[in-house]
Each structure stands twice: as structure tokens, then as C-alpha cells.
Amino acid sequence: MSNDHSAHSESGHGGAGAYAIGFVLAVILTAASFMIVMGHSLSPSGTLMAISVLAAIQVVVHLIFFLHMNTTAEAKWNNNVFFFTLMFVAIFIIGTMFIMTNTAEHMMSR
Amino acid sequence: MAHDTTFADAHSEHEHHELPTVFGFWVYLMTDCIIFGSLFAVFAVLHNQFNGGPTGKELFELSGLAMETALLLISSITYGFGMIAAHKGEIKSVMMWLAVTFLLGLGFVFLELKEFAHMIAEGAGPDRSAFLSAFFTLVSTHGLHVSCGLIWIVTLIVQLAGTTAISERMMNKLTMLSLFWHFLDIVWICVFTYVYLASMI
After folding, report:
1. Structural domain contains residue A100
2. Closest CA to B135 of B147, B148, B126
3. How many Å lie between the alpha carbon of A106 and the closest alpha carbon of chain B?
4. B51 inside 8 A of chain A by CB
5. Which residues of chain A make contact with B6, given a CB cutoff of 8 A?
């Protein structure tokens, strides 16, 4: 069995190279987020926007290099479930924030 | 995208079929994603309901957060090295990398508990304000997942200890733990960005 695996080692699961690239990108993106917040060089809304973009990029980096998401036919169902979940969570979070902010405004609680 | 071509080449010469178990575990992870999504929604709604208590800006420390983030990020790549060793069938190496990942994860949980204890001692426990309730629920749910991951790592090290070859079944177990561990790192990206950094702006 172990020989079986070594035959296709580093195939489709990302080799050391893929992990190293992912790790370097993740470190750069994380460090950038921390430095933007520590530097106080951007406006508060600008800072929030910048770290949101960095976080989104880092999530994609992790999905590709660490969770090995790809566009092969084999991964089709994994991707389908993933994008359904992503859509669900987006509707859930944005919808909750919209409704609760709206309610708070009408109740004049903030 | 360089890795796409590598994947395509690899698949043309050898097809690796994952058991339905791994797909099932992926579906479980997606439901876990919904749990965290709900907790993030709660935090988003309550993040400025301080009730006169301490704010995130007063409570959070960047140095501790950077340390926790570094530990979790490094543990991700050490687990990756473990997976590479597993594909080569090097059991000793797999166990070594799993042990390193375990220690890094343990360090993360330790720092998080220390932070929680410090906050509670200062009177900023989960009962102080809606913001702190949401904070403790979200962050400790993640911490609980990491702790479960640690138990899982120990289990697999013990199971690997007596074997001479990595079976297909063991490979699937390692793959699922890999997905779980890397998934928790993704959740942590959202935690340190929206819970900690966003509060410190």
C-alpha cells in the first residue's frame, strides 16, 4: 500500500512546493493585515476595507494550497457543496446585519 | 496558474479515487462553516453593544494575537509536511510532523485560555456585555474545534505507532484531519481580521 502511494506521491495533493508557496503567501498577507492596523496610516473605513480584502485573498490562498481545491471533474461535487455553503452563509450574514441594523434604527436604540 | 497543470499531469498518469468518506467529511465541514457563519453574524450585530463595559480596543493585545496566529499558521504547514510524508509512505516522518503540529496547536490553545483567564480576571467575562458574550461564544467555539483536532492528532499518532505501512483507510483519516485542520486555520483568518483587528482600528 505504501508503495502504491509513493507511486503518485505529491500528485493532486500538492507537493512541498505548493505548501511552501501557500505558506509564504499566507505569511505575507497576515503580516500586511497586522501592519496596516498597527500603522494607523489609513482611515478607519479604509483600514477595514484593506484587511477585508487581504483576508479574502488569504482564504482563497488557503483553499487552493492547503485544502487543495481545484477545478478537476473529480472535485466537482466538493465545489458544488462549497459554493452552495458560501452563498448560504453570505445571505445569512448580510441579511442578518441588514435586518438588525434596520430594526435598531427604527427602535432608535443607537 | 502553475499548479493547475501539475494537477492535470498527475491525474492523467494516475487516478487517485478518494472514498466517499472524504466527500462526506467535506459536507460536514461545510455545515461547520454554517455554524461559524451564524456566530460571525451574531458578533457582527453585537460588536458595539458594550453596555458600558470594556471595548475590544481596550482588551485585545496585538502581540498575543500575532503569536496565536503564527502558531496556527505554522501548524498548518507542518501538517502539510506530514501529508507529503504520508504520500511517500514514511510513517516515522508522518508521526514526527503530527507531533510537531500537536505541540503548535497546544501552544495556540494554551495562549487562548491564558487570554480568556486574563479577561475574566479583569471582570471582562462573557457575562459583562453582549459584545463579550458574542466574542467568547465565537472564539471559544473555534478553540473547542482546535482542541478536538488535538485529540484527533493524538489518536492518529497512536494508531500509526504499531503499523509498518499506511493503509488506504489510514490515508483517508489523515486526509480528513488535514481538511479539518486547514479549515480551522481559515476560520481563524476571519476571527483575527473581523474580531480582533477590526476592533483595534
Report:
1. yes
2. B126
3. 15
4. no
5. 15, 18
Place of cell 452563509: A89
Residue A25 belongs to a domain = yes
Q: Is the domain of A65 the same as that of A78? A: no
C-alpha pair distances (Å), B55 with each of A29, A105, B60, B199? 26, 22, 9, 8
Residuewise pLDDT in 10s, chain B (201 residues): 444 444 444 444 344 556 688 999 999 999 999 999 999 999 999 999 999 999 999 999 999 999 999 999 999 999 999 999 999 999 999 999 999 999 999 999 999 999 999 999 999 999 999 999 999 999 999 999 999 999 999 999 999 998 889 999 999 999 999 999 999 999 999 999 999 999 988
Closest chain B residue by Cα to residue A101: B45
Query: Are A55 and B190 an interchain contact pair (Cβ–Cβ within 8 Å)?
Result: yes
d(C-alpha B108, C-alpha B104), whole Å:
6
**What domain range is B129 assigned to?**
20-47+78-200
